[in-house]
């Protein structure tokens, strides 16, 4: 008699009951199993379930047999019950042939094995249910994540489209306001033209930032690495800030460490954008002392450190200032113009380029923002 | 239940068949059981047009032999007209039952009130036992089950079942509203064993006692009969030494070994793994006594027989040879003596028998004698 041929209780018990019914020439055999959801019945033939239910006396006897704790087997008319375990009973409906004592002894000896097989099925069913629940939850989480990402992408795509569309008319505003400034030079209206022009510049910068962020979110920002001269790029970027530092009468310095590779492969536009942002912030917040850009090697990486002797950033604001629309100061303490997007963009661009930005700052002493990039040798591009 | 004595037409003349059917229909036949011997089942076109035009349910098929008037006929058609309406469920592909279980269960719902269920199957189907277990699963132990495997001694795949669709393969499950009295016995006795079925695949026994099955079987048959079993004489030698699956009460269900394949012995009917198998032998006297015992079992059911439908095994008949020819006469005499009136006996020699033995579960038998006593009309209350 094969027992435990499957971990599916219905299949395992059907195989067993079918073989048992044939080997003992029974009319029917059933297993009653007190499970989590009440009495579970497995039968061969399955028709016997409804036929037995039509006989209240038989039903009552079977329920009593399931509830009592006898050992071995008990009989009632053509029915015989064999206890499988504390929670399960095997019922046999005999036909003309009555089970011999020898056959019964063999069957009783099989009951512990059947109990093990039933327990294995039960354990399997429970672990399967748990697994199904976990899969369902995972699938719901995945769906929610996909919905959120889709919504975020839609928003970003909309933002990218609208920023692009707004930049076009703004360029006209900027162009004509610059002409107006020239036309009205020395005139009492010159101040108005200057105001239009500077507001336009500010709007353009903001749109450019929004466009960059939208591209980053929508995974549309594509880097264009080029083989560039490192020193040349640094000097070009530094030049206007060096002049501005001089104008503000603060000390400015560009230091490029000896032994650095002459040429590197990097997206020059995005590298300039990051350094510009860091230098712009440094000069904006520093009113005396010094501002410097130094390029060096750090643990095999390339480090562009922008340091200043400005007001510094409190430790609790170190994380926040890289978030979008966030600045170190709040409310009335906010003393600088800007969208609060620059550092967020700089950090995300750095990560897109395979690097990161470090911040060291002490209130009252100044700040150091360090862009760290993996140094890419130009030869790699040719592969 | 029967409308008069069945009519036997001793040739394959379709016109005579049609005339006999028309006569029964004129007398109010509600269903027809048609049993054709293998030589009379060849005219597929003729049978198709006849069967498809019938206005009442029809069932039956082509069998190696038709039993009528004490003789086994290789040619001839037996027409049995019933006064009750049969519910016929056709299973086009019994080998696909496992994958179409729900559809079969649905179709069988119409037979849940039947008091007799006949199962006629293509005897060469590979999954007869799967079909049988599904039928019993749905219908339970209530009805009397009787049937067998149709086909011919040519043992080739060909349409062999009669229904309103024409001549088809597959299987048919027929519900009747009256209960037949059943007797099922075989009379084969164990002469060697038990052997543990250590390796098996369906009906192909690969290992007995962890040795090649053919080697074990060959050794035992040689010891018992002095004959050497080889592929050429396998069927003729092995039919005298079938295999018996031991039940827990010590009785046997017979499995007929039909051929050797490599080291395996191939049977008609499935053999469960890890079962105890014996080699059986049938003394003619014991087999004949089993036939009488089956008649007595059927009579013990309390049915007052108007006729007896016999499903006997072809290979059992071949083994009994001349003795088998006297079996029908013995049965007829036994039944007539017991009932005090003549009881016509008719039936088929089949390729495997289907019955519920001793009111137990439904099983597929080999080399077994199955007798169904058909009651007189009006002797059983109509359950409807």
TrEMBL record, chain B:
<dbReference type="InterPro" id="IPR013702">
    <property type="entry name" value="FIST_domain_N"/>
</dbReference>
<dbReference type="Pfam" id="PF08495">
    <property type="entry name" value="FIST"/>
</dbReference>
<feature type="domain" description="FIST">
    <location>
        <begin position="29"/>
        <end position="212"/>
    </location>
</feature>
<feature type="domain" description="FIST C-domain">
    <location>
        <begin position="213"/>
        <end position="357"/>
    </location>
</feature>
<dbReference type="InterPro" id="IPR019494">
    <property type="entry name" value="FIST_C"/>
</dbReference>
<protein>
    <submittedName>
        <fullName>FIST C-terminal domain-containing protein</fullName>
    </submittedName>
</protein>
<dbReference type="Pfam" id="PF10442">
    <property type="entry name" value="FIST_C"/>
</dbReference>
